[in-house]
Amino acid sequence: MTTPTRSTRSRALPYPRHGEAERRRFRELGLWTPESFADFVVDRTRRYAANTAVVGRDCHGAEVRWTYADLGQQAALAARRLASYGVARGDRVVVALPNVVEYLAVVLGLFRMGAVPVFALPTHREIELGQFCTIADAAALVVVGDPDGTDHRGLHKLVSDRVAEQGVEPPVLVDVEEWERGDAGGVAVEVADVAADELAFLQLSGGTTGISKLIPRAAEEYLYSVRASAEICGLDQDTVMLVVLPASHNFPMSSPGILGVLHAGGTVVLAPDPSPRTGFALIAREHVTVTALVPPLAQAWISAARRRRPDLSSLRTVQVGGAKLNDVVARDVEPVLHGRLQQVFGMAEGLVNYTRDDDPDELVLTTQGRPMSAYDEVRVVDPDDPSREVTDGQEGALLTRGPYTIRGYYGGPSWTEAVNASSFTEDGFYRTGDLVRRHPSGHLTVTGRDKDQINRAGEKIATDEIEGHLLARREVLDAVAVGLPDAYLGERICAVVRLEPGAERRPEELAEALRTAGLATYKIPDSFVFLDDFPATHVGKNSRRELRRLLTDQLADQLTD
Ligand code: J2J
């Protein structure tokens, strides 16, 4: 048994946090406890040792079923393997794994050894991964071989080059596919002594800027949200949760998600893909009681269930969140998918709203829930005069502050100074960028968005980022990305482009250029519109934003014509 070696990496950076008086208050109220994630892993894997913790596939495609005791051992084994790559206590490690059981072993292994996971998605490419590794000064990048035809070794090389360009030491590549089954490798690593207020992991922000924003989370505030969520959702040892969304997204991670289930001693079933066919088979076979979907998936599942009449009798709750759920689809959830609908409106920065089991149907169908905590502060303000709160029922911009909402993003001043100043008010409220109406019961209905972001099937894309990459092309004189209404995706990405006179209009070429630039596929525009002139905007206003609005209106009009 060894204590982890000292890292050659920088220590985690300080970041804006709750004030001392508030921290004391949350602890005195019993909301925040001294439990760290290392403690959490050890305690739950012992407490529920004989229960089934995880059902899923490993990265070789083999079916795996782990008890909590197995999961504890797998986490210890993963820690040992990670240490043999040089990963040490306090190191940041970018994890970009699909929904395979190794994902859980790696994440719990990192928690156990006091290292800090950075939760990337397997769809991220060198631009995103390069930024995460640079901002976090990551010691390692964890991937699996070539599940979807991506050359991860090549990807690691590209990421490393980008990171080195920024003067940061590139991450070590950890390919879990190379881990021999059962082969421990390295020397066992002790459970780290981690404080509950230390940086525990970095989560990704949906993004409104071309530069990734990393969200710093600590055990005391995050585990509070996990416990509160598990309680609201009634999780216990009989809970069987099917995870179809990418496991590292904040929704399936903690609302109440995988961590909620592990907290309560239930079973996590990892779906290798989100298709209704796979989902329905797993629900029937594993007697799944709860699952979390984004609206387009809910729609696809409803339509498939109508045709196939699968056995969904075990399903008690169907959570839908990540993007606005259409009222019509909402009404079909319970009759067709059998489970009661729970709307979830959350954000990786903090605030999560749930409709409750005992809410009247009308609220469940037409609102996105109310805050999970009595200590969540919600302000709905006039977007043009944020000092003025609007009355209930009126649309306004949502600001929030509370026991598990962050006070600032993570990273050196060059990454965070401007963005922290614009994303948070002086008194610590997070500007969510969402427009909502508040009901007298405290429930919120999301009515729109006041941020430069496209929500494509729950995946958030910063318009800035797409535009920046298009503008980098010589033949592109101007580019604006807009989200157009889409019956299935909610919104799809349309890039409106003004080309140099005489340049040929080749949409596939532009899409390919973004892909080869190293942008995640979900950010590639679904369509391109070429204009010789962009509509004129009022001078002095934030012209890009106004342009985007004008173009959205124009294009939406054309769609309905
Ligand atoms: C409308 N918009 C929604 C909803 C999120 C639980 C659930 C979701 C997320 C998430 C999460 C919405 N209706 N029901 O982290 O823990 C949009 C809003 C919000 C943004 C946050 C969780 N649910 N949204 O989606 O960080 O615009 O988190 O501000 O990815 O998604 O995105 P993200």
TrEMBL record:
Domain AMP-binding enzyme C-terminal: 465-541
InterPro entries with a match to the protein in the record: AMP-bd_C (IPR025110), AMP-bd_C_sf (IPR045851), AMP-binding_CS (IPR020845), AMP-dep_synth/lig_dom (IPR000873), ATP-dep_AMP-bd_enzyme (IPR050237)
A Pfam short name: AMP-binding_C
Domain of life: Bacteria
Domain AMP-dependent synthetase/ligase: 45-410
Protein name: (2,3-dihydroxybenzoyl)adenylate synthase
Species, as recorded: Nocardioides eburneus
